[in-house]
Amino acid sequence: PNNPNNPNNLPCFTLSQSAKLLAERKISSQELVQISLNKIQKLDSGFKNSNSLNSFITLCDPEDLLAQAQLIDQERFKNKNKNLNNNIIDLSGIPIAQKDLFCTQGIKTSCGSKILDNFVAPYDATIIKKSKQAGLIMMGKTNMDEFAMGSSGENSFYGPSKNPWNLSYSPGGSSSGSASAVAAGLVSAATGSDTGGSIRQPASFSGITGIKPTYGRVSRYGMVAFASSLDQAGPMAKTAEDCALLLNILAGHDVLDSTSSRQPLENYTANLNKNIKNLKIGLPKQFFGPGIDPEIKNKIQDSLKIFESLGAEFIEVDLPHNDLAISAYYLIAPAEASSNLSRFDGVRFGYRCENPKDLKDLYERSRSEGFGEEVKRRILIGTYVLSQGYFEAYYLKAQKIRRLISEDFQKVFNQVDVIMGPTCPSTAFKIGEKIHDPLALYQSDANTVAVNLAGLPGLSMPVGFSEALKLPIGLQIIGPHFSESLLLNTAHQFQLNTNFHLQMPPGFGELFHE
Hints:
about 525 residues, alpha/beta, 8-stranded mixed β-sheet, 16 helices, about 35% helix, disordered C terminus
């Protein structure tokens, strides 16, 4: 279906469009799955192929996928006269992708790491279980920075994913494969995880929409942990509407996750069409400082004019401790990673070194050979800041800063409804450009990590492209705890009046719908 708002008139199957076509019997689930399989075969043949996106680590068996789709088609045909609640949109039979840190029964869950290259999960993560119950068809598990540690996708044992807007550039990280697959149209939507910006930053780099929900809104059960107090799963898709549809499936309390919130659920699609007249938008001066690319700043200012035309109001606000967020994050997150990754020791599961001399040698060589450089770096930092004599000087001080950052947001939300600013200080960078400069890579999360430290929801959506290279630029919207519905509605109203989210990378549009 061609959207008239799309200037190139490129056919684009979003989740909502696919659901509508399935409901109207204009396409079958088997056809959708076959289209997705064809695109993946054509565009995702692994890292060794220079033209491949390398967005998937593991692909599901095509015959099994088509068999699942056939059963769903038969069930839909049997229930064709069934009266459904108008508020419920049936997404069964639509292909999606899952980030490769969600345990999936019978399928490899690698976390992008050599140490888990042979690990097949014996159970489903809650996110996987809910997706299956909704009838979504998982095409495969997507590539990612090892154990979600990185901002470029280059830390994967399986090689970096590539940005479909320019194959020489990073799609962002750590949810690199999910962002690349959605941006290129291999699937309509995918799941990601966000510990310090790993949904929002790749969404910005790849020109898609992604939302990190409030901490505890989506279950972490079965999600391999990086930093347990910061990790949060969420949806990535072309549009805010699609993110709302997927979040309706993923969100909710889970008795298997002690950090899962009991806050009542909303129907995230029910409030998408509210006008945003008199919406108070906070603009933190820290988000528009000297570290932001001037071109990005100009595009954000242009997008703010759209919100102004829709009746929103702007208030300059202050987040005085935001500049300390990167420092606090890179003490707290590695400390938690040091603890969480201690279970990967070569004894119970995962990679084991050959012919260990003794238990100490088994531990040392299994971990040294199995973990990549960035993971080792963060384990060492985390172990150091938790050690006797340094705990108070580093880790405890970082936790105090975390509290101050959270209080800053609370004060601002007493004045405004949402906060806006650039998702990232720059557009996507070249693969290999920053891999040997970890501090430069860490700065790509300068505007995102504070949201995780405070446990708030944050959304990124495309608002334009750089002039020279035509790389996507993302706007971040941050709200109070459990304001996902407000963020999605705000983004949706913008997308009803623009077409950035409908753009397809050059050379991929004609492959989107065959």
